[in-house]
C-alpha cells in the first residue's frame, strides 16, 4: 500500500530529528551540572512506584525530575520479579496482575478462525479490552500487529526488559490516545555490558505443551564507552495442547471437561413456573451425530455408523424423536447424555502451538556526557498453530435425496414406505480425517533513530528526548483443511448416472470437477472428493500494518515558587497508521480479488462476486490510513512544604490531538499528592479526560454483503446486510478518577508499604457494532443515524452495518497493594522475607449498548467474562545470598453466569428478554498455588525451577448456547499443572 507523504508528519519528524541533533551539538560545549537520570534509568528501591513501593519517577508522567511524586497509581515489576515468574513469555507474567483483565493470549480465541486476534499476546487493563490499553516499549509506540491497533508483546526483546510499569489511571494526556484503561510500558536495559543467557524447558503434567526457551544478549562499550552496542536474540517454542477431536473427553486425560451448555426454552413457555434456562453437563447436540443423523420426518432418529449401517440413535434425557425435528425431554438443540461421540467442544485447542523468534539491537554514541544518539532495530517473527474445532458440523441443515446412491437399501425402502423423497440430515463430518488448522504468522520490522540528553538555557537545565520510528508488521493467516460450502453441498447431492457411475447431481458442478462425497456413516472417504471439497489452498489472508511516528519531548525545572522547584514538560508527536488486507478469491470474491492466483481457479459452483464460500475464514479486502498530530504540556507545582503539614504538589497535563478522520479533541489530567505530617502517610487524587480514536478496522472495515432475514413494520423479509467501515466515527471519551491513600515505610513499621485506590472510569461514545435487527429497531425508535443507513422500501432492500458511537461503559472499584520486607537475623535465622499482595475489587462494570429494549449489562462478577469481583495475587519469598524460594497464590472469586439472570428452580416468574430465569446462576472461582526456587551455583550460573498451578486446579465449566470449548481461558488456567526448569548464565 502506498503511503503518501504527510506534510505535518514530515515536518515534525524533521523538526524532532534536527532539534535533537542541534541540541546534541550544543551540549558538546555547554558547561552544565549533571541532571537527574531519566526515570526509566533510575535505581528502584522496591517493586512498585505509584503504589508507594518506590521513591522514583515512573511512567505515569512525562516529568523526570527527582522529588516529584506523581498521583497516578503505577505498579512496577522489576527484573527480579520477572525472573521469579520464569515464564516463556512475559505476557504470561503480566496477565496475572489483578488489574490486567481481558487480555488475549495463546489460550484465548482458539475456537475462532476469523477474529484476527489468534496468536496475539495483547494486554488489557480493567477488562476494557486491548484496544483501550496503550502498550509502549521504552515509552515509544510500537507498530500494531493487528488491524485493531494492538501490539503483540511476543514481538518484544524480552531478555533485555529490566522493568514493566503498569499505569492504571489517567495517562492519556501525558502519553497519547488509546490509554483509556491505562498504559503498560516495557523498559529495556540500554547500557547492558557483558553476556547473559537463559535456557528453559518444561511441560504440563499431562505430557503436553512442551516448551523450550533459548535467550541470549550481549553488550559492550567502545571508544572509552562513548559508543555502545547491545544485541539480543530469542527463540521460544510452546508446542500447545493437541486436539482430542470428537467426544466428551478432554485432551490427554483432562477429565474435568464436561461438555457444558445452556438449554434455553422459548419465552412463551415460561408461564409454567419453571426456569427458561437450564445449566447442563454432557450436552448432546441432537441435530447431528458424528457420522450422520436423520433429524426430521418419519425416519428421524436414524443414525449411521460403520460402513454406513443405520442404527437407532441414543438420545440423552431419555429423549424420543417426534418426527418434527424436536426430541421429547430435550430442549432444542440439546439433550443430556446419550451418544456423545459427535460432540466437538472438547476438540478446540486449549493452547496454541506458538513459536517466537526475536532479534534486537541497540547502538548508541555519546557526543559527550550530555548527549546521546541512538538507533534500535527489532525484527520478530511469531508463528501460531491451532485447531478451532474438529470436523465441520452441519446442524440439521442438509437435505439428502432418497435416490442418493450412498444410502443403504433399507433407508431407500423406508423412504418409499413413508412416501418421502428426501429428509433433513445433520453430521459432525467425523469422517474427515484432518481437522481445521489455523496458522497465523506475524513478522515485525521496527526501526527507531533518536537522541536524548540535556542542554542549558540560561540557568535552567533542560532534558530532551526525540525519536523517529517506522514499523511494519506483515501478517499472513493460512487455514488448512477447510470446507468450501457450495462444493460440499454439490458433492453430497449424489445420483447414479445412466452408465452406473455415481456422479454429482448438478451438471454445472460435474463440469467444474465435482466428485461425489459420501457422508452417510463411517466410511472411507474418496481422496478425490476430499480434494474437491477441501482444496489444498484454503482460506488465506495477507495484511500489512504500517506505522510512522515522530516525537520530541522536553522537561526541566525552570523556576521555583514558595514551596520548591516547578517542573514542566512539553512535546509533540505525529504519526501515521495504515493497513491493507486482502483475502483469497473464494473468501473475498473473485472480483475484486487480490491476489487472483492460479491455485484459486474460477468455479461456477462458487459465488464469485460476494465470496463467503468457505465454512469459516472468509477474509475480505480492505485498506485505509489516518494521521494523528498531538501536542502536550505538563506541569508539576509544589503547593506547600512544612514540618507540620508535610508537602503537597499539583500535577496538571493537557494534550490536543488532531485526527485526520475525526477532527480535534482535547484530553487532560489534574492530580495531586499530599505527603501528610503523619509518618509515612500520603494522599493522592487524579482525574482525567482520556480518549480512544476509532481504529483502522472500525474506520475502514472490509465490505461484506450477505442476505439476512429482518422484521420491519410487522413483516419479515430478506434484505442485504452490507457490512462496511464508518469513517464518520468520533473518538471515545473517558473520564477517569482515582482517589488513593498510601503508607510508605513508616518509622514504626520499616520495610512495610501499602496503598488503596478507588477508581471510577466512565466512557461515552463507545464504538460498537449492532445486528441488522437491532439497527432496524433503533431506526423505528427514531434514531435517524440508523435510518440513513438502510432502505427497506425499495425493491433492493438493504441495511448497512457499521460501528457507531452509541454505547457507554462505567467501571469502578478498588485496587489494593502491600509489601513487607524483613530480615530473620532477629530470630537467629538466615536470609530475608518479602511478602507482597495485590488485589483488584471491581464493584461495578456497566455497559449500556444503546439498543432499544435493553438495559445496562453488569459485568463485574460475571465469570463467563473478563471481570471477576475479586482478582488477587500474593507472593511470599525467602532468600539469602545463594538460594531463594517463592510461593504464590492467585485467586479468582466465585461469580455468576449473568447478573441479569434470575435464579430459581420452581415458582419462577415469567422470563423476559431482559431478565431470563435460570436453574443455576453460580460459577465457581479458583485458587492457584505456584512454587518456584533459584540456586546460585556461582556468580555466573544460577539454576531455577517453577511449578504453576501446583494442585492442578481444573477450570470451572463455562456453558454457552452451543458446545464450543466449555471453559473460560480469559480468567482461568486451562492447561493444568506446569513444570519448568532452567539455567541463567551471566558474565559482566
Automatic annotation (TrEMBL):
<keyword id="KW-0998">Cell outer membrane</keyword>
<dbReference type="Pfam" id="PF00593">
    <property type="entry name" value="TonB_dep_Rec_b-barrel"/>
</dbReference>
<feature type="short sequence motif" description="TonB box">
    <location>
        <begin position="55"/>
        <end position="61"/>
    </location>
</feature>
<keyword id="KW-0813">Transport</keyword>
<dbReference type="InterPro" id="IPR000531">
    <property type="entry name" value="Beta-barrel_TonB"/>
</dbReference>
<keyword id="KW-0812">Transmembrane</keyword>
<comment type="similarity">
    <text>Belongs to the TonB-dependent receptor family.</text>
</comment>
<keyword id="KW-0732">Signal</keyword>
<keyword id="KW-0472">Membrane</keyword>
<keyword id="KW-1134">Transmembrane beta strand</keyword>
<feature type="domain" description="TonB-dependent receptor-like beta-barrel">
    <location>
        <begin position="548"/>
        <end position="950"/>
    </location>
</feature>
<feature type="domain" description="TonB-dependent receptor plug">
    <location>
        <begin position="70"/>
        <end position="183"/>
    </location>
</feature>
<dbReference type="InterPro" id="IPR036942">
    <property type="entry name" value="Beta-barrel_TonB_sf"/>
</dbReference>
<dbReference type="InterPro" id="IPR010916">
    <property type="entry name" value="TonB_box_CS"/>
</dbReference>
<dbReference type="InterPro" id="IPR037066">
    <property type="entry name" value="Plug_dom_sf"/>
</dbReference>
<dbReference type="Pfam" id="PF07715">
    <property type="entry name" value="Plug"/>
</dbReference>
<dbReference type="InterPro" id="IPR012910">
    <property type="entry name" value="Plug_dom"/>
</dbReference>
<feature type="signal peptide">
    <location>
        <begin position="1"/>
        <end position="27"/>
    </location>
</feature>
<keyword id="KW-0675">Receptor</keyword>
<dbReference type="InterPro" id="IPR039426">
    <property type="entry name" value="TonB-dep_rcpt-like"/>
</dbReference>
<protein>
    <submittedName>
        <fullName>TonB-dependent receptor</fullName>
    </submittedName>
</protein>
<keyword id="KW-0798">TonB box</keyword>
